[in-house]
Amino acid sequence: MQRDQYLRTLIQDKLRAFTLQAAERDQQHAAAVAVVITDEGHGAELPGFPQHAAWSTQAALLLTRRSGQLRKHAGQWALPGGRIDAGETAERAALRELAEEVHLELDASAILGRLDDFVTRSGFVITPVVVWAGAAQHIRPNPAEVASIHRIPVAEFLRADAPMLAHEGHGAHPVLRMPVGDHWIAAPTAAILYQFREVCIEGRPTRVAHFEQPAFAWK
After folding, report:
1. Family assignment (predicted)?
2. CA–CA dist 61, 49 (Å, integer)
3. What is the pTM assigned to this prediction?
4. Secondary structure (H, E, C), 13-68
């Protein structure tokens, strides 16, 4: 418990010291995602990804694979999130989406802070909200939106081969990906994960809004 409180306070202090960069947005194109810090545990298995004992004391981030039935971005890696409804803050939207997608009910005391807004090629402005979830033992996917839930140890985002940058012939900046096991996650999700690593773990005020997204993520 002492270790958890120490890590929570450390991350919260780093977010408070970080100067946010916000993007202009309208209500129709505003979205929020939850960057959820939790304990490692049994998530869906990933090829090439080491499995860890359930409910260990190691910190992890909560990611999902989107349902294959969704109209947009089916099967892709994602952070829980969605549109910000009229009258909602980004924080409230992130908590609502957590409850809807993975049945994780948290209140405002779980909010640690925000990362920079990220403007997607499809025109959405995503606000990442960093959330502390503790053990989160009873999460389960909403099958209408989520195919599987994964607890990825924070250490995985500190790999020496992360981030992966490549110019793909569109845009002036490289596409950013974050490796996970034998897979990789693309921007915009990967860009948010990379900034979490830089700001919340390494304490570096790294910007990511300029990184490009692969063509399949544009739609």
Report:
1. Belongs to the Nudix hydrolase family.
2. 14
3. 0.88
4. HHHHHCCCCCCCCCHHHEEEEEEEEEECCCCCCCCCCCCCCCCCCCEEEEEEEECC
- Partnered with residue 59 across adjacent β-strands are 39
pLDDT by residue (tens digit) across 119-169? 998 888 999 999 999 888 889 999 888 989 999 999 899 999 999 998 876
Residue ranges covered by each domain of the chain: 2-154
| Token pair listed for 210 | 């300029």
Give the residue among 131, 176, 181, 116 at the shortest CA–CA distance from 152: 181
What span, in angstroms and rounded, lies between the C-alpha atoms of 193 and 128? Answer: 10
Q: How far apart are CA 146 and CA 66, in angstroms?
A: 5
116/35 Cα distance (integer angstroms)? 12
pLDDT tens digit sequence for 45-76: 444 444 433 323 478 999 998 764 645 654 58
* Residue in 13, 94, 61 with CA at minimum distance from that of residue 193: 61
Residue type, 152: I
What burial letters (b/e) apply to 138-176, b meaning 16+ CB within 10 Å? ebebeeebbbebbbbbbebbeeeebbbeeeeeeeeebbb
Homologous superfamily, domain 2-154? Nucleoside Triphosphate Pyrophosphohydrolase (3.90.79.10)
Residue 97 CA to residue 139 CA, distance in Å, equals 13
